[in-house]
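Dear support,

I submitted the protein below through the web form. The confirmation email said the job was done, but the results page showed an empty box. After a refresh the structure appeared. I'm attaching both so you can tell me whether what I see now is the final result or a partial one.
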Amino acid sequence: MYRVLVTCPPMLGLIEEFDCLAQAKGLQLIPAETAQILSENELIDLLPDYDGWIIGDDPATLKVFEAGKVGKLRAAVKWGVGTDNVDFQACERLKIPIANTPNMFGGEVADNAVGYLVGLARETFFIDREIRAGAWPKPPGMSISGKHIGVVGYGDIGRSTVKRLSGFDVLVSVYDPAVERIDDYEFATLEIYPEGLDKVDFLIFTCSLNELSFHMLNVEVIAQLKDQVRIINVARGPLIDEAALVAGLRSGKIASAALDVFEEEPLPLESPLRQMPQCIFGSHNSSNTREGVMRASIKAINMLAEFLDAKK
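What the results page shows now:
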């Protein structure tokens, strides 16, 4: 029986439901004690005792894989689509088979993106908090119909988001250098970010994180935005320079933001974002539905079992 370390929080929340499948594949799933990520040092200490690893958003670095390789580690799977935390080149060099589970949560994350859009437009989260505090607020909301939405990234999440927006009577601009033309919907496709940002009322980030997309919303880009724009990020925290975002929120250039992800997670208690009631925050949880977790976890278990069997 192969011992497998599981460090992905959504999978950990349902881990008992995967025991039968894992055991049938010759895997013993061992849940890590974590709410979000383990540190590099914690992983270096733990990983050598395991044959396989189902990775969450942990720092899967060269040092971590080297430590695992010295021990028993023989294969790994990155749970979910995001891979910016994983050194795939290190695995290739160390001959550790690894893959991720793409196209698992496009619909789930897109649902949350649209929910955030409605929440920002109508200030529903703010109203809820005020009522719970004893008030009875009636802030004027924003009608969504007729607005211009910018979507950054046209992968699985971006496509699913645009599909959902097609029912909102809005104009959508997609920013993705890999996309030349899209015929599925009536909207503009822009290859060069950040052209046209002075026109959008909402800017939704759905793209992956890499060297080119790091801090793609920064001081310079914010200066080009339409006044009172609303920002939504359901992708990766470091796509946004949070210091620049805070400055934009304080100045009123940015009306509000909905962030499911942050540069540092969990969001530090001292973060000035916590003092901004016009914003909506999530816990990097947009993909976390029972159905989505089941889908991705079964895929991860099957892939890891194949890797380990191939290494016999």
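Response: this is the final, complete result; the empty box was a page-load delay. The domain at 2-104+289-310 is CATH 3.40.50.720 (Rossmann fold).
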